[in-house]
User: Fold this.
Amino acid sequence: MKKLINSPENVVLESITGLGAAFSELIKIHTNPNYITRADAPVENKVALVSGGGSGHEPMHGGFVGRGMLDAACPGAVFTSPTPDQMFEATKAVNGGKGVLHIVKNYTGDVLNFEMAADLARAEGIEVEAVVIDDDVAVKDSLWTAGRRGVGTTVLAEKICGAAAEAGHSLKEVAALCQNVNKNGRSMGMALTSCIVPHAGKPTFDLPEDEMEIGIGIHGEPGRTRTKLKSADEITEVLLQPIVEDLPYKSGDEVLLFVNSMGGTPLLELFVVYGKAHEILTRQGIKVTRSLVGPYITSLEMAGASITLLKLDDEMTKLWDAPVLTPALRWGV
Amino acid sequence: MSNISSSQIFTWIERYAAQIAEQKDYLTQLDAAIGDGDHGANMHRGLQAILVKKADLQNTDIGALLKGVAMTLISTVGGASGALYGTFFLQASTLAGGKTELSPREFGSLLEKGLAGIVLRGKAAVGDKTMIDALQPGIKAYKDSIESGETMEQALSKAVSAADVGLSSTTPLIARKGRASYLGERSAGHPDPGASSTVLLFRSAAETLC
Ligand SMILES: Nc1ncnc2c1ncn2[C@@H]1O[C@H](COP(=O)(O)OP(=O)(O)O)[C@@H](O)[C@H]1O
Ligand SMILES: [Mg+2]
Assistant:
């Protein structure tokens, strides 16, 4: 294993400490338990948004803390959900009196630990709502599994709901909006290489030089199929088709097209995928009105990409365009 | 039949910590096959954190001891198993408030209360390929044995065997809960990591509570 780390034990703490040092005007790092808040938290009379999950998906979620997005993020160990005391402390720290929304990616560990944190916060009189994001179409049999995983739509939900909270919407409204974003977002990812979890020290799975895994999860969970490597155009088709068919996205729909790097795939390649996806959607009469391209929900150094589509309405578009000022996303300010 | 003291309960947890430490890599290996390869590391982190609090935990009643164990697991383990094992001990602790000893029958009620907590939180049933597959039959064997007048030693040894059978039964199953469920049919042919750490919980009990 070749990694720029000092030790697997300290990598998360050292990384969030560095993040805090780099963006001290935007965010504040809290330790024991670990969580990251907006520098100006709590913001009085605003619904607060708290998210979190295992580390290794940077910039999600810590990079999305700031004005117009999250009020707090709770980083767990690499690929392991955070613990309830983190979410509980974060919830208390950012509660501005208008309630707190937990945005949770659908993984058993994340869901259970956030539920326990919400129980603790409610017991202290804090109003908490939770929305679980489950947008990964690669999981087919959602009845017989823990359900679809939460992936790319999470980033979009955090941005859009953050803007709604900033605009003064109530907890019920922001939670309903978050559900609506989840209902209209779909994703699928693929891997060219495995990632290496620092503690494990070796690749999570073996993927021969000439093969790829279609439908991979962000923790290296296996996908739908393993096939011979194909061209970027073909891979884009393979990812996009099940997404489009699932909602389904139809001619005349306005969508946000989000092409995400799993960590190891450079922007040069990502824009090749974006270009092809844009072309396919346009051909089908689906209007791409907003875009996001880059590494936003990663899986350590895994090479590969994911595509997320979100069907937009006027409100969502307006909230997407609203100002945001975080370490990883910023515009309009 | 003799009762279980609070110091025995702590020794049980200490023994469990030692067994988890010993089996850490094996548990992680099981989780790497059908999950994300962190179960051993997760459990080890939590149990070591409990050992650090030994001085505080040793000098309390069983309710406070189990609650301390629960809160430590909840705040250090993470993942599905942190919430679930934490809930197990937290629910069990609610039946032991102020008690410094437990009859074998009371101990059985604690285990059942803990199991009910896990089921309520995780919504898994026997056959879903989770820790429930070892925990449920283990507790049932213990209770049946105590009810029929057998000794603590017999009851715990039957619990270990039943949990072990439960663990083996998970191997051919297709996981329906937790991370392993994403594998679908590919999860068959591997034992469940959480059921494996649950067998150790019974094994350490059998070595310390009678
Ligand atoms: N819903 C559930 N109910 C009961 N046990 C579960 C459930 N989901 C997962 N588990 C147990 O948790 C174990 C995995 O624990 P661990 O690897 O520590 O957490 P994670 O799956 O979050 O990485 C599984 O082997 C299984 O026994
Ligand atoms: Mg695991």
Summary: The domain at 4-208 of chain B is CATH 1.25.40.340 (Serine Threonine Protein Phosphatase 5, Tetratricopeptide repeat). The beta strands of chain B are 4-5, 101-102. The mean pLDDT of chain B is 96.
